[in-house]
Amino acid sequence: xxxxxxTPVKPSFEKALSELEKIAIRLEDGELGLDxxxxxxxxxxxxxxxxxxxxxxxxxxIEILQKGDSPNEVKNKKVAVKPNTGEIEDDEELQGSLx
Amino acid sequence: xxxxxxxxFFTVSEITKILKNEIxxxxxxxxxxxxxxxxxxxxxxxxxxxxxxxxxGALLSAVFFRYANKSMKxxxxxxxxxxxxxxxxxxxxxxxxxxxxxQARPDGAGELQKRIEQLKKKLEAEGxxxxxxxxxxxxxPKRIGVVTSPTGAAIRDILKVALRRYPNIEIILxxxxxxxxxxxATIAAAIEELxxxxxxxxxxxxxxxxxxxxxxxxxxxxxxxxAFYNSKVPIISAVGHQIDHPLSDDAADAAAPTPSAAxxxxxxxxxxxxxxxxxxxxRIQGALLKKLNESKTGYQNLISKKIFRTPIDLINSxxxxxxxxxxxxxxxxxxxxxxxxxxxxxxxDIYRLExxxxxxxxxxxxxxxxxxxKMSPLNIMKRGYSIVEDSSGAVIKSVDNxxxxxxxxxxxxxxxxxxxxxxxxxxx
Lengths: 99, 428
Description:
Chain A is α+β, with helices and mostly antiparallel strands.
């Protein structure tokens, strides 16, 4: 199968979702012909897929910013969190502020 | 004086003693907190401190004995708002009551409240609390920035709520001190740091759990309020409070009464979003299916029509029409031809007729010629008539046109005679 054309910028989640909703309304209106209906439907399927992709874009990580070795340097450090309590594990060495 | 007439009485000492006893042993007055402003303050050389506490409506004398005030960490000042702990005592010798202060602390709230009000007015005038300056919160933030203490209850609550609502959310904590004098600067710095594009933060939650009015003061500090306002990333103020909300709430794009509530606002419930997408997906699927069914029904209705069931009928009927037209055409042509033929057959009669006509015309012509010949003057002259002409050859038709002596020519049937008129006689 031919590879799909790359769209330059994917719409934001908000835009994709609202566009999907608009398509649903247009299709339910029933004013479109069969050909246009199928075109709109295909657009809608694409948007729904984009929305689902957007939901999975985040990759669950908790980080804490810490003062770096040189002044004004800030580094991020991954930390483990107990999901049921929200407690950060081994936080003894964490600094209380960036200053 | 009659003893019976004299009413029961107290001595001054007695009544004062009763009052003293009443007041100094009543739990209502022995361990109490009193709030007011210091007035008429005297530091006695003995180490005791005498002053009056006042508010808008009343005065209360107070004494702060040396044994009680020696551990005090601050100095009482005239006009200072304080909260005092102690009990009421009655000073019999002066007949007055006073508060025996055991503990004093500055009533920060009063002072601070004033400062907050002033700051609020100033920032309000700058437009920092304008609703038009508020940014919209993203529907689906991928990465949340949090500004709070890494060890407090706030971060635990936020993480718990955020991960429950959106298991694969990304959270970056910019640690800050949220209590005490150094807090404001660290909070402002942390907000600023999270605005650095390299962290790719979609929304910030900045706050702390509930506490005393003083505990929440950092979120009333100018530097912090401005940091909220200046944040390019949408920011939620998440300071635990019951009644008085901190100024950071007014400067933020959104405010929540607790850090947990802020996490609920910032982080969408993933299952809700999945449901919404699927709902619309189902809708478009259903609508298309309906459309397809409609088209199918329309098609079926169409092909069930007779013409599509037995298309040969269409041809047959056309063929019949064609035959009909052909027959009619042939018959019309036949009529036309016979008509022409009939006219063709009539032609010889016409010829005959015309021939007769010519004969008649010839006969008439001869008769006319004969007539014409009879009419000729030459013929008339044969019968004895002559023509008289004048000298120019013109015929003289009247006696009026001649006179005596005129030369005239007389023309006869054969020949002429030149003559002269002798005389003219006119006759009636």
